[in-house]
# Entry
Amino acid sequence: MITGSFPTTRLRRNRRDAWTRRMVAETALSADHLIWPVFIRDGSGDPTSVNSMPGVVRVGLDRLAAHVEDAVKLGIPAIALFPATPAELKNPEGSEALNPENLICQSARLLKREFPELGLIGDVALDPYTDHGHDGVLRDGYVANDESVAVLERQAIIQAEAGIDIIAPSDMMDGRIGGIRAALDAEGLIHTKIMSYAAKYASCFYGPFREALGSQGALKGDKKTYQMNPANSDEALREVAMDIEEGADMVMVKPGMPYLDIVRRVHDAFRVPVFAYQVSGEYAMLATAMELGLLDRERGILETLIGFRRAGASGVLTYFAVEAARLLKSG
# Structure
């Protein structure tokens, strides 16, 4: 039975031809919307594989520039650096985070010499440096908020002085954005941006990332006392509002795909740059399904990324970034 304006209105007409589909597409995806997370390790030689993340590697400083070169050529605007700190340098206080010669700082100086226009994002948290695996300092088994913030402020300064363009606090301590902004400004680092992990959930999807950093099994307890409850949505808006007020230039939702509703709510409520992190567990699920032939690899990569953009993300941190940029370049 014909109803409404059919057959006068046929929505399929605009879907008939590829050029029409492109012309009326509501959402765009390009290399400009991609950020590539890169794991750096101590030592030299060939990159080492991350077993739980097919195709992802840890790279030493001697191979870092070559590793990043394709991303630069493909027009990816920024990479995010994550250090696989050697176990012997980890301690309860995470003191290696404050070493101006740590892996992130050395990497930043190297990459700024090789690729001055490449944006560098530095992870600011203590979990890559502590032997207990938490994002701050422990006092009587509890992560001490204000004491941790004081360390994060110094960590941010050290990274910015080394050449990091965007400080990305991933710890979820209360008040750390305001503290870091004030600390950076006091050192004259007024142009250093802050991308706040504003809505970071205590998620099960981070497991492969912890293997990549060599901290798998080191975490004592869990992070539920400072990262968000996956059941909460309104709380995310309060977190984002506080971070913007404290000086965040852009905000992030993490994980990504299970929290696209949060991305949309943040976008609609604040109209600020909001990024999403397609985290290691998401990547591992997709990459494994693709390897088994259960998902079309090219279509799967691009469909998930356009989903982030459609939800309102200004950009996506994804381990697929270089592959996606190649696909987009090839048309």
